[in-house]
Predict the structure.
Amino acid sequence: MTPFADDEAGPPSPLDRVRFPVEPWRLVETSFATHDLGTTETLFAVGNGYLGIRGSTTEGRPSHAHGTYVNGFHETWPIRHPEEAFGFAEVGQTIVNVPDATVMRLYVDDEPLVLGVADLVEYERALDLAAGLLTTELVWRTPSGNRVRVRSRRMVSMTSRHLAVMTLEVTLLDCPAPVVVSSHVVNRQDGADEYADQPDDEEPARDDPRRAPTLGDRVLEPQLTSDEAGRIVLGYRCARSRMTLAVAADHDVRTPDEHDAATEVGPDDAKHVVRVRAQPHRTLTITKTVSYHTARTVPARELADRCRRTLDRVRGEGAEAQLAQQRTWFDAYWHRSDVQVEGDPEVQQAVRWNLFQLAQAAARADGDGIPAKGVTGSGYEGHYFWDTEIYVLPFFTYTTPQVARSALRFRYTMLPAARRRARELTQDGALFPWRTINGEEASAYYAAGTAQYHIDADVAHAVGTYVEVTGDEEFMDREGLEILVETARMWTDLGFWRGNGGGDSFHIHGVTGPDEYTTVVNDNLFTNVMARSNLRRAARAVRDVAARRPEWFARLCARLALDLQEAAEWARVADALAVPYDPHLGIHPQDSQFHEREVWDLAGTPPEKRPLFLHYHPLVIYRFQVLKQADVVLALFLQGADFTPEQKRADFEYYDTITTGDSTLSAVVQSIVAAEVGYQDLALHYFHRSLYVDLADLHGNASDGVHVASAGGVWSALVCGFGGMRHHDGVLTFDPRLPASWEALGFRLAVRGSRLRVRLRRDALELAVEDGPPLTVQVRGAAVDVGDEPVVVPLADQGPRIEGVPDPKARLGTRRPDGTVVTASVPHETGRNA
């Protein structure tokens, strides 16, 4: 959100620090509340990239939206357009809320523990970021006055991707009493949700395109039910997609008191009930291990066998061994991935929460994509977007390259569907879907969906960055090159030449850039500069493999009908791609007609009318210069070598004043470029906005799941914004901008088999290679050789510093007395970057 919309507010307020105290490695809640159940269920979710469980209470109620999700497990449904047209997306895809195994309802003296109304003497819920574990500890005073200590743990395993482990401990503190624990596996997707209820003050959700639609028909068709000596096994098949799932749950009961147990299994609700004649100060412990397996075509009975084998292994190893393995995994993760912010403990805690979410969203995706909400909610229907390649993969490329490789291989498996989609739109090559789960386009609104052709260049950018950073030539030769070739072909066919003698400039019309408040335009700058990079990468990669592996290249040419002449044409198109420039304003227009539109009066738009897309018809928004997210500014970051420092500053100042920040993807990019051009206070302001997107629910939809791209952007803002890291043409460079309120900033980067440790102080940059061969980097243009001994590079300053914020009137033209705006001149087109 631009500072001019709420310049009185300053940085976003952090969490309520009485309820959520500052701790370096935990997110802690000290009192239970019902007014923000949806948000806290997201904040305390646990997952591993394959399986995710929302932070709903162990007792099952109250709840905003119980949710257990498996990455890629989805139902399909027909998209019904009121007015059909050729090539519209036909089949929607929505992630399925798989059977929920979290509920372990507790009764003492026949009274249920319901957190919303219970008399809680003590309460603490904590997400342990170092251990990958959710814990709750409370003391409940029952209506009869008996105090009961209840502890629970919940973990989704990073080492065994199909496994979740849950533990419930119950200890009476005063008097003997009958205790009952009813542990369930519930198919909530199809309405068997008697164990959840909404708080009385819950307001009905308004229409919001970010939320998943409700599937009216039955989704999960029962395939098997089984009670195997207390082990619950259920199997299902999706009615339309025909995907299959099995879930199995074991219960290990430990208590010195007299007890019995019984199991009852139905198609939509299975339960294991434990009854205990409990004595004071003697603990009942129930450990519930749950396994989920899914597939596209494998019968549910085979998946049930896989679940059994998973649980048999865990039974042999023990639940505590799983917790120890989890801690070992996270120790290694944090060694690679942690970013230390010295001097601001609140920021440090929030940074680690965001980085933790990246692990939960992707670490064990293992061949699937990375959904925009990870596996923490049903927002955006569980779809994969460009978010992965632009905002999430940079983090993994530089910290855990194998995760980035896996995500890019997933895109490679989409190529057949992407080729078909390109044919539907009468294009050569391949066109990746704007939003999808199974590889087919699922965006029903083409103007802000399919028209975002830049998805091809985004994927190509991630491929090129990954190979450049890791040196993984095998991936380039076997998968990456084919992606580059097919996306380059799409661009050369999509655009056209204009001018005399065969064409002086190359143009791309009828596309939408990242800013979804301006759609179906000509020569969108972001699209053109990213397409140019795509074409150059493809031409360079083809020439490289032809020289390096001629036999492999010959086979590739035969399979793809490729030759060096075609690659040379890509390079020629890239050199001629039109990049709009307005010499009168001295900035790059977002598209060729952007400055012919009137400027939206953001300062005069009341807060209750934000975000704009929920309050104004798209046609109203499309007529104005107003941005949902920083479009040109993102290009300045991703293709920074193509712009001069003066151009970056001028473009940032222009677009910052008309950017609403209605997209959670915007603030991180504004922070990075603000730091680079000198608006260092503003950079910190935008960084806070991205840092607390979910923690402070700044966009009002954290209840739908974590904004994974924003979490990835937090890392980029730290490392690329304040750390000043760039990687162009194989050269790693640093030009840092440490915030004045921070003492130091530290992080690690994996580059070409080496692990570089970076620590930025106010007066110096410390560099050391912890593992691998030495590296040569540049710090403010000077080459620095770095080995295992720390190198200290003195810094005279922290880059340019511009006080205040951009002046909204400096370049936007003047306003007449009648209130109308004098629009800027029609932009001048150039074949190359001005």
Remarks:
- The two ends are 29 Å apart (CA to CA).
- Residues 1-10, 195-206, 814-834 have pLDDT under 50 and may be disordered.
